[in-house]
Amino acid sequence: MFHRVTSNLIVKPRVSSINFSRLRSAICDMSLEDAKRIAAYKAVDEYIKDGMVIGVGSGSTVVYAVDRIAERTKNENLKLQCIPTSFQARQLIVKHKLNLSDLEICPAIDVCIDGADEVDKNMTLIKGGGGCLLQEKIVASCANKMIIIADYTKNSRQLGDQYKKGIPIEVVPMAYAPIKHQIERQFGGELGLRMAIAKAGPVVTDNGNFILDWKNYKQDYDWAEINKSITLIPGVVETGLFVGMAKKVYFGLADGSVKEQV
Ligand SMILES: O=C(CO)[C@H](O)[C@H](O)COP(=O)(O)O
Q1: How many CA atoms, within 13 angstroms, populate the side-chain half-sphere of residue 157?
Q2: pLDDT digits (tens, 9 = 90+) for 59-100
Q3: 26 to each of 21, 23, 32, 53, 150, how far by Cα in Å?
Q4: CA-to-CA distance for 258 and 262, rounded, in angstroms?
Q5: 28-254 belongs to which CATH class?
Q6: Ligand 1 cavity residues, CB under 6 Å
Q7: Considering only CA atoms, which residue is closest to atom 8 of ligand 1?
Q8: What is the pLDDT of residues 135-165, one digit of tens each?
Q9: Domain limits of the chain?
Q10: pTM score of the predicted model
Q11: What is the position in ligand 1's atom list of the atom closest to the CA of 129?
């Protein structure tokens, strides 16, 4: 950076007092939130119809979808039944005074709208960044259509290109160590027990389980096969690999448009 020289004084330009990295991150955060919102609104407007049973996913992008569902429910007097995929989703449904239901009452879901941590070119997903993968997979498996909403950072060619926190695997607590060793031995990479932030010890899921995050895996795996093999290990409850489940993905882009992947 050049400085103005006045007499013998070096005067730093005022602009040097701006913290550019904070400014950049503020701008990026804003456009990322906008990207989530436009994807969520478009998906809700295109898929949610009066009388439907809907699956409500988890995460920060789903918050916008529920905002839109609530707005449309009020304006259009929609009659919807909402099945949550997590404690968070349940709270969102209750907060917006939407009809809360469950799989016992409504075992068949019309549309499930959920977020994702990464989406590859075949629409294989990594989910579970928020630790809700088990209920998310159960609810999605009951849905006629699973619709994904995400910002542009989730759009990937191969799993692992964008999302670096690993593939979540929900496990029964007593089995986490042998499962970790078996997956590392059989498939490579490293698995780490997900630790809580505002609590000492591991994250405990809504179902009372632990989460192992699998990093440094081979990126060109056949994910359907890997998913099958891992779920067969005793103590594994579910993986965050969603293979062949998503019907359509809406990516909110930084320029304000929405890209659709089918
Ligand atoms: O799978 C999930 C939670 O278990 C979320 O859908 C995923 O983590 C995406 O979250 P966000 O919309 O906050 O990026």
Answers
A1: 3
A2: 999 999 999 999 999 999 999 999 999 999 999 999 999 999
A3: 9, 5, 10, 37, 19
A4: 13
A5: alpha beta
A6: 57-61, 114-117, 127-133, 136
A7: 129
A8: 999 999 999 999 999 999 999 999 999 999 9
A9: 28-254
A10: 0.88
A11: 8
